[in-house]
Amino acid sequence: MKKRRTSQNLKLSTIHELARKFTPGAILKTLAKEYKKYPRKSKTDAEYEFWIKVSRSTANLASGMEKWVEEWLDEEDEDAGK
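Below the sequence we write its predicted structure tokens.
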């Protein structure tokens, strides 16, 4: 019987530190670049497809989050000018 993989525990302190220094879009953009390397190392077609989808969806989410940050900053600037 196959043993199910469990997600690895990340140190919350590391995540908190990154979240305080970088925008979510920047973090996701970096992850998307990293995930783009994974399909070449895939051992099966299914794993290859999985990493392609993860990379693309992470890049799309990063792009959307960058747009939201820009909109938020524009709103902040408008409010400050009033």
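The chain has one domain: 23-81.
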